[in-house]
User: Which sequence fits this backbone?
């Protein structure tokens, strides 16, 4: 039987003649940080102080006895294994591996595993890492310059691109043994890979398991036994390959969250030589069907995910690596972050192409939480050479990871790249490349062929954005996926309402992290918009300028008042995302999904994230809970004129109700009211016209629409023009939190719980109250409750004139 011996202890890192303790899995930066050699690069401006680490070579060492590692001294009856392999699940990135001075191999790809036959060897195991910069620059000299969104050479080697910095991430170019390493001892044969093709045919679950084995004895007869629940099947292997097929009667279907349950089935594959069990492969699967409908219609060509025959409006978020040092991301951390996503109403997570293929822990959590996974291949925002040594590495990593991730029912879409097809057309790449390769052969050739060959149960799309063919502009909103960045870069967020893309795969608006996160990240610094530390933790091109212009369109700029600036930028982020999602959801099924940029951060930074680098939830996070709820109301302008309330019902049940409409003044007077009955079908949108006499006029009036506890607001002017009275409210302590009672109109009330205690968390974000209304805000992690402190941590809109 195959046995594994972990090699996660006993490592040292060589540094300037010294031997430092090394953690495996880990990386050079985290080892140097633990040893006190470098400062924490996440704090202050330390990022630049550790840049030298990426330019050095580093060596990891430990002693290995491959011959006897699996045999206990007192186990005299155990037969020695015929072969021992040294297996690295992940090496970052350019490395030379030696055992007892013997060269085992050289590697240059972070995104794949590596296996070496070390049978009978013993001695000192060394893994010497070269500088990723040196490798990338050497490949660039050999293959020629390729354009990219950033000056760093990330497109010249197969490594997590964002470790070279991004417009939300630090430049911390890592090296190290970033995933587990072990010895595997086996005889006769071992399972090299299993491809589970899972489908549902006429209510029966079908599992076709395609098996590849590696042998030490070619003549040995091998049998494979597969089991799913009580269903068992056997097959003889033909050489080194075999196929076993099981039919599971009436399985429970796996559904995305909000559509049904997520039953998972254990699959066990056993490799046998006679009665001897040689190896076992175990995974969990789910029975479901998935399609991608890109058919043409009157609006262009769509992009709609269909799971188990149910057409979905995807409520999505983009995912980046949750730490710039991915080896620090634990199973619990994945679970926490993805549970936050699910609790916000998210049902789709896009694993963005500048990061990594995530660990099994990520996809396991998505399987259990019902989160659909859109998986990018790791290509982002650059022209990638298609020559060797890159092409062979790209194919090897794609083949390995497609097979590795196939068992997960949450995985529903493979995507070739992020923004590279768009970049070729719009970012002057075509002229600059002058015919050189740039990745098109990967996205339109190699990768779809690999997916079709290995994983035909899932759809593939060539890129995001992508219109489906070169007949249309790659970012044409009428065809396929669309990235909406003109709004953040140049326009007011009202621009989101000017079009109805078929699927919005990226859009976003920045805001700083929580106050306590900034205080930890910038110790000793007086916080101010544009201060040196704030600028060091703002990576977007003219990011602060865009934040300022976004504020000035609505509020004016709170010069010299950091607390007000911090609050208003977070309000503006939530409002911007709300403007987009409300508009696009109200136009389902023409628009079939929104994927917010972005869910998470990899360090403390001003960014587009809903959850900051310390795991604290911004107001945007709580706004997503409202925006992605099954039931949503939004007031929209109709093309024919006038206003309508879009009643959005994404639940599986019809929503019959009565819509209460009130035209009000900012002083709280009701100027007109009506009740209108509606019936919104399951997974449907019903537009209810607003009577003309209830349409608000001027800056002093607004409209409130409400049904079954769901509200929508319509103000007719920017905040700086609305003559609101100064907000008045009372604050009282109640069990588990605080209660706020409004005496006037109180807009966008926000409790910044982390100002009470860095560990405190509020259960809601922005809330608007009419005179006389009250809200209870739950607070966790606040030990010394105090009403005065709570009032000081409450922010809301105030009159600007």
Assistant:
């Amino acid at each position: 039987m195959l046995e594994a011996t972990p090699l996660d202890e006993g490592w040292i890192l060589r540094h300037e003649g010294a031997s430092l303790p090394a953690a495996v899995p880990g990386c050079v930066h985290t080892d140097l940080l633990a040893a006190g050699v470098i400062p924490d690069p996440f704090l202050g401006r330390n990022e630049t102080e550790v840049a030298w680490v990426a330019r050095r070579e580093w060596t990891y060492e430990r002693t290995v006895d491959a011959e006897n590692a699996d045999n206990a001294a007192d186990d005299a009856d155990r037969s020695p294994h015929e072969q021992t392999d040294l297996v690295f699940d992940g090496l970052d990135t350019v490395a030379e591996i030696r055992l007892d001075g013997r060269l085992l191999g050289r590697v240059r790809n972070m995104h794949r595993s590596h296996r070496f036959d070390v049978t009978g060897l013993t001695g000192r195991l060394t893994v010497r890492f070269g500088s990723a910069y040196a490798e990338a620059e050497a490949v660039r000299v050999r293959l020629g310059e390729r354009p990219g969104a950033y000056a760093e050479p990330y497109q010249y080697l197969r490594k997590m691109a964002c470790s070279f910095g991004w417009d939300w991430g630090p430049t911390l170019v890592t090296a190290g043994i970033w995933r587990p390493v072990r010895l595997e001892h086996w005889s006769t044969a071992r399972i090299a890979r299993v491809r589970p093709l899972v489908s549902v045919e006429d209510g029966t679950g079908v599992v076709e398991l395609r098996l590849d084995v590696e042998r030490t004895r070619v003549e040995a007869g091998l049998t494979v036994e597969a089991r799913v629940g009580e269903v068992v099947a056997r097959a003889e292997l033909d050489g080194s390959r075999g196929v076993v097929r099981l039919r599971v009667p009436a399985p429970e279907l796996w559904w995305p969250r909000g559509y049904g349950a997520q039953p998972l089935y254990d699959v066990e594959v056993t490799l046998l030589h006679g009665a001897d069990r040689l190896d076992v492969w175990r995974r969990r699967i789910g029975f479901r069907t998935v399609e991608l409908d890109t058919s043409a219609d009157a609006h262009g060509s769509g992009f709609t995910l269909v799971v188990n025959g149910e057409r979905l409006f995807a409520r999505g978020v983009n995912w980046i690596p949750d730490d710039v040092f991915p080896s620090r991301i634990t199973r619990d951390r994945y679970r926490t972050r993805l549970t936050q996503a699910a609790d916000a109403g998210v049902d789709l997570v896009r694993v963005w192409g500048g990061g990594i293929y995530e660990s099994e822990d990520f996809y396991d959590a998505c399987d259990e939480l019902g989160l659909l996974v859109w998986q990018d291949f790791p290509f982002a925002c650059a022209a990638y050479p298609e020559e060797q040594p890159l092409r062979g590495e790209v194919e090897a990593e794609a083949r390995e990871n497609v097979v590795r991730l196939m068992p997960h029912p949450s995985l529903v879409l493979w995507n070739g790249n992020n923004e590279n097809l768009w970049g070729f057309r719009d970012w002057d790449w075509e002229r600059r490349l002058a015919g050189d390769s740039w990745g098109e052969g990967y996205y339109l050739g190699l990768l779809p062929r690999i997916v079709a060959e290995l994983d035909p149960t899932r759809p593939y799309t060539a890129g995001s954005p992508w219109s489906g063919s070169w007949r249309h502009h790659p970012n044409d909103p009428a065809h396929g996926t669309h990235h909406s960045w003109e709004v953040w870069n140049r326009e007011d967020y009202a621009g989101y309402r000017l079009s109805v893309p078929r699927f919005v795969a990226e859009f976003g608006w920045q805001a700083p992290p929580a106050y306590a996160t900034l205080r930890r990240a910038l110790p000793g610094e007086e916080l101010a918009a544009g201060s040196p530390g704030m600028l060091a933790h703002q990576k977007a091109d003219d990011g602060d300028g865009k934040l300022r212009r976004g504020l000035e369109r609505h509020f004016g700029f709170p010069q010299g008042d950091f607390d007000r600036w911090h609050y208003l930028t977070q309000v503006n982020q939530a409002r911007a995302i709300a403007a987009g999602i409300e508009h696009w959801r109200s136009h389902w099924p023409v628009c079939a999904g929104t994927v917010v940029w972005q869910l998470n951060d990899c360090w403390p930074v001003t960014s587009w994230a809903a959850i900051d680098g310390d795991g604290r939830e911004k107001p945007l996070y709580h706004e997503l809970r409202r925006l992605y709820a099954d039931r949503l109301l939004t007031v929209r302008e109709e093309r024919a004129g006038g206003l309508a309330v879009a009643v959005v019902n994404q639940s599986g049940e019809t929503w019959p109700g009565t819509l209460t409409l009130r035209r009000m003044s900012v002083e709280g007077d009701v100027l007109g009211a009506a009740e209108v009955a509606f019936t919104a079908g399951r997974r449907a949108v019903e537009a209810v016209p607003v009577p003309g006499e209830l349409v608000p006029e001027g800056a002093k009036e607004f409209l409130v629409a409400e049904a079954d506890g769901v509200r929508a607001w319509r103000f007719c002017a920017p905040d700086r023009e609305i003559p609101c009275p100064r907000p008045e409210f009372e604050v009282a302590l109640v069990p588990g939190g605080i209660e706020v009672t409004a005496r006037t109109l109180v807009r966008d009330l926000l409790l910044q719980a982390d100002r009470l205690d860095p560990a405190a968390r509020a259960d809601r974000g922005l809330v608007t109250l009419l005179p006389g209304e009250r809200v209870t805000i739950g607070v966790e992690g606040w030990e010394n409750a105090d009403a005065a402190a709570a009032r000081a941590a409450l922010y809301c809109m105030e009159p600007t004139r």
Observations:
- The CA atoms of residues 335 and 555 lie 38 Å apart.
- Confidence is low (pLDDT under 50) at residues 71-78.
- Residues 562-585 form the longest helix (24 residues).
- The chain is about 20% helix and 30% strand.
